[in-house]
């Protein structure tokens, strides 16, 4: 079989790229390692930048997002027993939308199915061939039978552990990495959110984040060891720890209820350069990972998709390939800015096990400066709502 663009991975990057290309009349196929059920059940991000919302609109999947998504004009930063509001709207003229990645994925899968586009789930042994030449193709197995798809271009949207990046010869790629010495333990529970806006809290016991999915569903995280065992964390222990890390005024208002999802996520920063190898383009988590502190992972996947989609659209419209040639450089410029922001927010808000009281004092001073200087608050807000594409 021959296709214009073969997409590996049906996470948000692959699905969004597929939808935009389909709307532009460009043929795609998606192959996915997991089952459809698994793809739809994944719980991850919650905060969308305006650019991501615009792109979802452009793909024709913004309907439910506009009905159910919650516009947030500000966020709270808590430290030293108090919380301080950063007014995103008045500082930048922009806001963010709280709408779960699970819902984004649902909307994209529904739209793909409604348009009759093909996704092949539960594929194995995906390999990429001839990326340097015009005759590139991928092979994979499905139920023990090998298949081959010839493609003009291959979009590697298969996440951090995917086949795309690892198929690139080691000498052609450079990677940059920082692994943080802790993780996040997160829960989802059908209880009203503690606050109408997100609270990011720094505390000597560790970081905590109060987020949400709706007016009746809360998403809470606490910093934990990266090898933390979920079995050791009853809901009661989780809520107890969360409460201790919040300023009293918020802790007193915490409603508790049984969680229905609990997981530990490690924290790392990672970038692979370049993001293009001949006919293969890396997109989203396949090329870069950020710690979730800045809420940037999904949003960076969306900006990569924007650059790649525009470049492919121009290619098939008969224009020259300048945009395809510039993809890696353009995407990486924005990636590194978000990597910097996510790293700095992580460094400012977490307890580092090997650092002493000096580091803690510096973190407090940094937060104190951030919330009391308009210039510093604006710089934070500009990054949080998302830098321009
Ligand atoms: P994904 O979502 O990992 O999707 C990759 C897909 O590829 C499939 N796959 C393969 N398919 C075929 N062949 C192979 N060999 C394959 N190997 C893998 C996988 O099954 C999967 O379906 O990557 P994508 O599409 O680039 O999307 C990236 C985002 O999912 C990720 O950046 C965000 O979830 C990060 N993130 C957040 N981002 C935000 O913008 N805002 C947030 O608030 C936010 N919070 C978070 C987060 C990530 C978290 N975790 C668990 C890492 C909170 C958490 C806790
Ligand atoms: C979430 O709601 O899952 C979430 C929100 C903000 C973050 C990370 C995760 O920075």
DSSP strand tally? 19
CATH class identity of the largest domain: Alpha Beta
| Arithmetic mean of pLDDT | 97
Helix segment count? 13
**Whole-angstrom Rg:** 21 Å
Low-confidence segments, given as residue ranges, are: none
| N/C terminus separation | 35 Å
Query: Which structural class should the secondary elements be placed in?
Result: alpha+beta
Globally, the shape reads: globular
The proportion of residues forming helix, as a percent range, comes to 25-40%
Relevant terms:
D-Amino Acid Oxidase, Chain A, domain 2; alpha+beta; binds 8-demethyl-8-dimethylamino-flavin-adenine-dinucleotide; 2 domains; 8-stranded mixed sheet; 13 helices; globular; FAD/NAD(P)-binding domain; 29% strand; binds P-hydroxybenzoic acid; 389 residues
Structure description:
The structure is a single chain. The protein is an alpha+beta fold. It folds into two domains: 2-71 and 98-177 and 268-346, 3-Layer(bba) Sandwich (FAD/NAD(P)-binding domain), CATH 3.50.50; 180-267 and 352-385, D-Amino Acid Oxidase, subunit A, domain 2 (D-Amino Acid Oxidase, Chain A, domain 2), CATH 3.30.9.10. 38% of the residues lie in helices and 29% in strands. The protein has 13 helices and 19 strands. The protein has helices at residues 12-23, 36-41, 50-58, 63-68, 88-92, 101-114, 163-166, 235-245, 248-251, 297-316, 322-349, 357-372, 374-385; strands spanning 2-8, 28-31, 47-48, 70-72, 74-79, 82-87, 96-98, 119-120, 124-129, 137-142, 145-156, 174-189, 199-201, 208-214, 217-224, 259-273, 276-277, 280-282, 288-289. α1 packs parallel to α6 (101-114), α10 (297-316) packs antiparallel against α11 and α12 crosses α13 (374-385). The chain is globular, with a radius of gyration of 21 Å. It starts with a strand and ends with a helix. 8-demethyl-8-dimethylamino-flavin-adenine-dinucleotide binds at residues 8-14, 31-34, 39, 44-47, 101, 123, 126, 157-159, 161-163, 184, 186, 265, 284-285, 292, 295-299, 301.
């Amino acid at each position: 079989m021959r296709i214009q663009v073969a997409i590996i991975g049906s996470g948000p990057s692959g699905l969004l790229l597929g939808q935009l290309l389909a709307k532009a009349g460009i043929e795609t196929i998606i192959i996915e390692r997991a089952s459809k059920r698994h793809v739809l059940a994944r719980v991850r991000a919650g905060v969308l930048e305006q650019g991501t919302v615009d792109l979802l609109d452009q793909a024709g999947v913004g309907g439910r997002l506009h009905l159910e998504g919650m516009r947030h004009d500000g966020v709270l930063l808590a430290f030293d027993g108090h919380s301080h509001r950063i007014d995103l709207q008045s500082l930048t003229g922009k806001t963010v939308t709280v709408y779960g990645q699970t819902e984004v994925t649902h909307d994209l899968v529904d739209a793909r199915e409604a348009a009759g586009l093909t996704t092949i789930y539960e594929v194995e042994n995906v390999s990429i061939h001839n990326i340097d030449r015009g005759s590139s193709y991928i092979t994979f197995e499905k139920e023990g039978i090998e298949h081959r798809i010839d493609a003009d271009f291959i979009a590697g949207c298969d996440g951090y552990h995917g086949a795309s990046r690892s198929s690139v010869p080691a000498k052609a790629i450079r990677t940059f990495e920082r692994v943080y010495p802790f993780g996040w333990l997160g829960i989802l529970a059908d209880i009203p959110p503690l606050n109408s806006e997100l609270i990011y809290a720094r505390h000597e016991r560790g970081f905590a984040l109060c987020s949400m999915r709706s007016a009746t569903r809360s998403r809470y995280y606490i910093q934990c060891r990266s090898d933390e065992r979920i079995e050791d964390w009853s809901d009661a222990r989780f809520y107890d720890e969360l409460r201790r890390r919040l300023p009293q005024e918020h802790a007193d208002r915490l409603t508790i209820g049984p969680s229905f999802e609990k997981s530990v996520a490690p924290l790392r920063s990672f970038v692979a350069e370049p993001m293009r190898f001949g006919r293969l383009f890396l997109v989203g988590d396949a090329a870069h990972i950020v710690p979730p502190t800045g809420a940037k992972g999904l949003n960076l996947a969306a900006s990569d998709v924007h650059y790649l989609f525009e470049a492919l659209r121009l290619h098939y419209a008969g224009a020259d390939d300048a945009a395809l040639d510039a993809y890696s450089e353009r995407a990486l410029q924005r990636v590194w800015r978000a990597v910097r922001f996510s790293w700095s927010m992580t460094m400012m808000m977490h307890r580092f096990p090997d650092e002493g009281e000096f580091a803690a004092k510096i973190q407090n001073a940094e937060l104190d400066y951030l919330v009391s200087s308009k210039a510093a608050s604006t710089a934070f807000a500009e990054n949080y709502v998302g830098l321009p594409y």
